[in-house]
């Protein structure tokens, strides 16, 4: 479905370099509560947010990938990267190259990426009924 050449980081959007650190920090907070999901749980969470588990790997550390489509042709791909114990685990967020052509600024693209991660956390709590660590007061 996706190839590496078809995906870009937030830095490719207008204002992307300014939002890169913001997105990484927000994602890192949310990674800690999503990193230990089983493959079956990932499928349930993906379906709950209107996404799909996709066959995509950044490298050998990619445990799973979920793609969501906020607009036709505008895809966001979340890749769970298991680097522990050497490095910290993280979720890498990539966007379809075509998404940049929409003219959407990095601020909006990064907010959408975070909102979908929030929805995944809600799904873990409400659908999977897992008692997971809180990321914030409401999340």
Record keyword descriptors for this entry.
five-stranded antiparallel β-sheet, 21% strand, globular, 4 helices, 139 residues, single chain
Would you kindly provide a brief summary of this structure?
The protein is of the alpha+beta class and 139 residues long. The protein has helices at residues 16-34, 39-48, 97-100, 106-126, and strands at 7-8, 52-53, 62-71, 74-81, 90-96. The protein is globular, with a radius of gyration of 14 Å.
What do these coordinates show?
By secondary structure, the chain is α+β, with helices and mostly antiparallel strands. The protein has one domain (4-126). Helix content is 39%, strand content 21%. It contains 4 helices and 5 strands; from the N terminus they run E-H-H-E-E-E-E-H-H. The chain has helices at residues 16-34, 39-48, 97-100, 106-126; strands at residues 7-8, 52-53, 62-71, 74-81, 90-96. A 5-stranded antiparallel sheet has the order 1-5-4-3-2. Helix 1 (16-34) runs parallel beside helix 4 (106-126) and helix 2 packs across helix 4. The longest helix is centred in the last third of the chain and has 21 residues, at 106-126.
Strand content: 15-25%
Poorly predicted regions are none
Count every beta strand, where a strand is a DSSP E run of 2 or more residues: 5
Q: Kindly report how far apart the N and C termini lie.
A: 31 Å
- How many helices? 4
SSE pattern: EHHEEEEHH
Mean pLDDT: 95
The helix content is 25-40%
Strand order of the largest sheet: 1-5-4-3-2
Shape: globular
How is the main sheet built? 5 strands, antiparallel
Radius of gyration: 14 Å
Please identify the structural class as seen in this structure. alpha+beta
Question: How many separate structural domains?
Answer: 1
């Amino acid at each position: 479905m996706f190839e590496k050449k078809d995906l870009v980081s937030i830095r490719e959007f207008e204002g992307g370099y300014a939002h890169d650190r913001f997105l990484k920090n927000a994602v890192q907070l949310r990674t800690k509560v999503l990193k230990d999901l089983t493959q079956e749980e990932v499928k349930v969470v993906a379906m709950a947010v209107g996404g799909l588990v996709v066959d995509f790997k950044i490298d050998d550390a990619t445990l799973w990938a979920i793609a969501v489509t906020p607009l036709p042709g505008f895809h966001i791909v979340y890749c769970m990267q298991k680097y522990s114990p050497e490095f910290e685990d993280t979720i890498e967020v990539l966007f379809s190259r075509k998404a940049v052509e929409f003219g959407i600024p990095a601020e909006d693209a990064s907010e959408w990426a975070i909102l979908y991660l929030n929805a995944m956390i809600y799904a873990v709590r409400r659908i999977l009924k897992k008692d997971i660590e809180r990321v914030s007061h409401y999340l």
